[in-house]
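User: Structure tokens for both sequences below?

Assistant:
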Amino acid sequence: MGVVPMKKLIIFIVFMAVLLTLSSNAYAEDKIKIEVGDYTLTATLSDNSSAKAFVQLLSKGKLTVEMSDYGDFEKVGPLGTTLPRNDTYITTEPGDLILYQGNNITIYYDVNSWTFTKLGKIDGISSSELRDILGKGDITAVFSLLEEKNFSYGDADCNGSLTANDAALVLKKILNANYKLPIEDKTNDYIKYMDVDGDSNISATDCAHILQKVLMGTYLFPCEK
């Protein structure tokens, strides 16, 4: 397959962006690590603005939280900052990570019903196992990203593969400067990965290059040459 002319690609992307219904679940699944004493737990985060803000916070480095028992169903401690809230009335389960009042994080080891924001859930653990790990009294919990994210050029939705949806997302950003690309919640250096033509800004030409690579996997972005 030969290289498709850029003008035709740009026209096609505009048409595609009108037809595409951009999914609100375009974010790749985020996992974090929680260290308590000699134990290391992993947790899968929820898909909401609170969890995304938590990821941004952890991208700056590990977060140490001093946590205390409350109500014989949770450990709670201050974040030292305030995150956006997505409060709903829910009943917790053991392992739930909860944002309370926007500035406290809790680890639930039993059930409780209240209005707060679910940040995520600890992976594969029972109430009794969690109680044993957390123990009685105050603890120090260290929250961090599970692993450093490896970003790919043009992968605007951070799902690990390059598709036409990435081109459409970048075009949406061009048409609406207030629109936030999924990758912006993962790294402040997102322009580096979306500026695939290497001209120091994001434009329709970048969309065209992304689509060109989708159509022809061996195609190299200008920034890769």
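Moving on to the next sequence.
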Amino acid sequence: MNIERMHKILVEPRLTEKASRVADAHRQFVFKVLRDATKPEIKTAVENLFKVEVESVQTLNVRARNKTSGRSTGGRPAWKKAFVKLKEGHDINLMGAE
């Protein structure tokens, strides 16, 4: 896999309350990833970009939702979420503080 693809696979980290609880309890980090990304691609991207060892990857497809505001209707797009579990002794610092 080339470096350009690795940078595109991980769209953004999900920094939510649930993601914080999962990170503290199970050493799992949550990322928004491309919808066509596979588990081996996600694992390789995280290992190479953050210099950590990944134990497992779980993915979840978040469905699209219709939203209405007054008379106008619109929608939120579908996306893919990845839960990445790291091996013992590895950590990712997403906040930037040392």
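User: Anything stand out in the second?

Assistant: Residues 70 and 96 are 40 Å apart (CA to CA).
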